Amino acid sequence: MKFLNLFVNFAIAMVWFINGFFCKVLNLAPRHQAIVGKALSQEYAVLLTKTIGILEVLLAIWILTRLQPKLTTLFQLMLIASMNIIEFFLAPELLLFGKLNIIFAIIFMGIIYANQCYHQKELQSISQVPNN
């Protein structure tokens, strides 16, 4: 089961990396820039999108380090919820699945939360092993 936890952790990090680097920094999915332009500022959409992309890449690295996993999980959940609520109301026509995107966001949040719960359970079971 530990392998599954590590795999899911890696997969979560890759979602952030791919969306940040390929979709935003390299602009391989121009709709991301269009969403940022509509939600935040059309004038600064390019700069803001690339900045968000770089921050998402840094978040992927943070996830892979497994430093402060509770804080990382909380940060991701708040980020996903806020981004998707803003997009739901301000730019639903630009989303891959329209307003249904919120469903995929909730599923992704559930995976992140469940992965953290499993990781925490593993840490607790390791700390309870008696030293001989």
Automatic annotation (TrEMBL):
The chain crosses the membrane at residues 7-29, 44-64, 71-90, 96-114. Keywords: Membrane, Transmembrane, Transmembrane helix. It holds the Pfam family DoxX_3. Coiled coil: none annotated. The keyword Transmembrane applies. InterPro entries: DoxX-like (IPR025695). This is DoxX-like family protein. It comes from Pedobacter cryotolerans. The lineage of its organism: Bacteria, Pseudomonadati, Bacteroidota, Sphingobacteriia, Sphingobacteriales.
